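Colleagues,

Please find the record for the two-part complex below.
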Amino acid sequence: KAGVTQTPRYLIKTRGQQVTLSCSPISGHRSVSWYQQTPGQGLQFLFEYFSETQRNKGNFPGRFSGRQFSNSRSEMNVSTLELGDSALYLCASSLIFSRTGGRETQYFGPGTRLLVL
Amino acid sequence: GNSVTQMEGPVTLSEEAFLTINCTYTATGYPSLFWYVQYPGEGLQLLLKATKADDKGSNKGFEATYRKETTSFHLEKGSVQVSDSAVYFCALSDSPQGAQKLVFGQGTRLTINP
């Protein structure tokens, strides 16, 4: 079974631009989460989607947004890029069983490395 | 809120040495606990997990036991190899209203010298 895929793998943008990152979850997984990884802040949760609905959101400004499609693929968008948005953006998917709530294992993709100049 | 604290790195060991990376957590309820590993230039790979108190997760010679009384989930390996060099992250599931969310420790960089 194919793993989580993310595109593009690398991206260079300039301040003020916007960017869209894509994530395809493992087949059958319906939950997709996004994380930002930086040397200073470590790994921080951005948001999670399940059945096209955002269920949880981390402490990030409104410039960070996302969505999920009916096939569970997800995109995240960052508008008005700032230098501090340079990071590795990781997507993770998980298989949700209602009886165990939100404690399922998350499987990560290779990430998209974004550099803002 | 929930949080995870890992031992400060970097950690440098010789091949075949014993490894311990400490991880403690603060959480309400009963989170699941995870260790993930990140190799250079890659995403996170699940190393092992435990879902309830006294569970032991194990994989590739690594082990960790969910200790509720000490709120710990220390990672151990009896004999490390050069290929174990990576950054290791301890994490807990923080799942408000069933949503998926992981809270990570700061990561511990491990270097194994031959």
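The interface with chain B takes residues 4, 6, 31, 33, 35, 42-43, 45, 48, 50, 55-56, 58, 90, 92, 94, 96, 98, 101-111 of chain A (CB under 8 Å).

Comments are welcome before we finalize the supplementary table.
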